[in-house]
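Fold tokens
===========
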Amino acid sequence: MHGPVSPGWLLVALCAATGAYCLLRMRSGVEEQRGAAGGEALMGFGMAAMAVPAAVFSPPGWVWPAYAVVFGAAGLRALWAARSGRHHLHHVVGAAAMVYMAVVMAASPAHGHAHGASGTPVLTGALLLYFTGYVLLTGVRLIPVVAVAGGGAGADGHVGADGRAAAGWGDRPELARACRLSMAIAMLAMLLPL
């Protein structure tokens, strides 16, 4: 991607850390969690590789079409999975954004900025609006809710007073939301220079 080297490396670190966490979430006992975490891990590592500053490494020309194929396939898989739950539609949009960025990078001369004086392309603007809305909505959903006393296991995974076992750390919805939130913020940072 384009831009200064230091913020680029911070973006690489954020995306790689998110991808690594998503790999760990794949150990979940819940099949749907494992599937979503796998797609999110691919997205995190793909975004980390794409965010490496161009001043440090300029990938060969074949990389961008390969990105488009990989994330196109990931988008189709997410679209198929969306039959069982609408939350997979976010993965479809994320994969489409990655395909779009790969196509823009492949078409840009010397992988420079893809647009000139004409301003932000419509598709870039639409993706920026989507991810901005997603970040705001997910951020609001992460606001802590007061727990009912004695209502199950605590954050440490112990069994609560009612005898139910707590979900493992990989199955906690707030951690999955935080993971998606960090990738959506990174996606915004990557779309802005387009």
Observations:
- The CA atoms of residues 88 and 157 lie 27 Å apart.
- Confidence is low (pLDDT under 50) at residues 111-118, 148-165.
